Sequence to fold (127 residues):
Amino acid sequence: MKLISAVILCAFLVAVLGAENKYTSKYDNVDVDKILNNDRVLTNYIKCLMDEGPCTSEGRELKKTLPDALASGCTKCNQKQKETAEKVIRHLTQKRARDWERLSKKYDPEGQYKKRYEEHVGSSRAA
Fold:
């Protein structure tokens, strides 16, 4: 689940690979809370990710980097991006579960990233 969050994070933060093999911090100052609390805007991002609507430049970048972010466990994300991903995942799983499931099926059809996320959450709680 966290990995998919990283993907959603990338949607809001739109990560582009940098010279140091990290995602760009260009979108780190985006007000994610404002997006998450605006159903219309959040729905537009979800439609973009699901190929059901147009994308902003951030949405297009997210769609390009999402597979890599999921596959790498967001290892190219900075701390701010990881924290934002956690926030987005919590919001989607708690308040937009149907959209979360749709995104999960598209970007993690075999559940491998979800499993890795659940293991991460379990180890974080134990620490």
Summary: Helices lie at 2-13, 32-36, 39-49, 57-72, 79-95, 97-107, 112-126.
